[in-house]
Amino acid sequence: MFLDWGSITTFYGQLLKGAGLTLVITGLAFAIAIAVGLLVCAGRISRVAPVRWASTVYVEVMRNTPVLLQIFIIFYGLPSLGLRFSAVTAGVLGLGLNVGAYLAEIFRAGVIAVPKGHREAATALALSKVQTLIWVVIPVSLRAVFPALSNMFLATLLGSSLLSVIAVPELTGETNEISSRTFLTIEVYSFSTLIYLALTLSCSIGLALLARWLFPRASRS
Amino acid sequence: MRSILKAAALSAAALGIALTMAGPASAQESRLDKIISSKQLRVGIILSLPPFGMKNEAGEPDGFDVDVAKLAAERLGAELEIVDTTAADRIPNLRTDKVDMIIGQFTRNSERAKVISFSDPYITAVVMAIAVPSDSTAAKATDLDGKRVAVIKGTTQDAAFSAAVPGADIQRFDSSAAALLALKQGQVDAMIEDGNFLNYQAKLAGNLKVIIDPAFGNLIDYNSIGVQRGDQEWLNWVNMFVFELNTSGKGRELYRKWFDADMPAPVNPQF
């Protein structure tokens, strides 16, 4: 086995470009996921039964099928129905819709986590429904679900590597490309692993700081 | 916070140890002896590259390359174990000792020969053919300037086409099957692969046509079997096997079986 660590420097630019795209994809997918999550969460606790059923079906289907297949259906399948997305769009959409189902459940847990007494207190203070939502339910549940949200963000970042199979040149895609062109398999894959580690750890630290700033009196772990 | 930093330090240390341990593996016994005594031959084949490698209706590996692998196992008196691979994973599979040889339409070149060894050629192909939808007006490679073009990561075609038409929007797929699907679904405007694969696919699909750019028409691939570098005895055997395949006419017979045509060029001017 001949390891050639020096040659990796030649590919810094390409790998960093891939890492940049990985972050962009993660950000966009997670934004979609939050929107989908809030919507579906609202559906899950809705009083209208059909809305509740539809939301439940969405969550169960998305969570119980592989995200890779969902991405394949969007990229390779939908063109048959006349819906054509670029590889990046299809990937972001697939990832966002999938993670959205998980976020919906996390948000729902957060809403349930708000103690009944809090709502009763809000009623006693004559807060309207909207005021209760903004000042009581959201702050309390956000604090409860923040660690779970952070985890899902990291899972989205790592999951974005799946997009390499539909030719998206994100970090894993670029890594495969360099490895297949230069045969520096072990070297390039190890280096990319380190980049992923650096990305996830900086995100973890960033999210931990965000939590500290958002919830000043939260107990820290 | 502190626990995150601690975890980071630990993971970095673990990775460091793992990498230092991947030291040189000294070659003693030839792979040839190992295969003869264990009666096991592991062959990497691209099973997403019909009709070279694919799964038949029974779900069994089948195709031109599979037939060649079966013949090799038979000659060695060994049991054949087929390892599915992709174009990009061919060299990694050899370097990490997952397979004893790769029979996967391997184009031999001096760059690749720095890390693995190639046998004598066992099949020829037009290097660069272009598949487009039947209604496409493209007639040569440069017509694809600005168009979305699918190539397969780590192939000769990727390098050649990227250099020839730098203005194309090149989408790099992991397998020929994935690229072909993208072409059929209109996700790309063209696909670059070798002539054997594309001619066969165009015949199956009907709504695709194959263009051979005159500038690349004379370029012939002499595809070989890939083996690990540093085991000359094993390479000698593989070369002898290829020699027999070529001189006995068995190779040409297999090509005719799968393509209903003759190879685009004689397999090797020597024979």
Tell me what you see in this structure.
- Chain A is mainly α and about 220 residues long.
- Chain A has a single domain (about 5-215), classed as Orthogonal Bundle (MetI-like fold).
- Helix content of chain A is about 75%, strand content about 0%.
- In chain A, helix 1 (about 10-45) packs antiparallel against helix 7 and helix 7 packs antiparallel against helix 8.
- The longest helix of chain A is centred in the N-terminal third of the chain and has 33 residues, at about 10-45.
- Chain B is of the alpha/beta class and about 270 residues long.
- Chain B has two domains: about 30-125 and about 220-260, D-Maltodextrin-Binding Protein, domain 2; about 130-210, Periplasmic binding protein-like II (D-Maltodextrin-Binding Protein, domain 2), CATH 3.40.190.
- A five-stranded mixed beta sheet of chain B has the order 4-1-5-12-6. Chain B has a five-stranded mixed beta sheet with strand order 9-8-10-7-11, with helices on both faces.
- In chain B, a hairpin with a 5-residue loop joins strand 2 (about 55) and strand 3.
- Chain B is globular, with a radius of gyration of 21 Å.
- The interface of A and B includes residues 76, 79 and 176 of A.
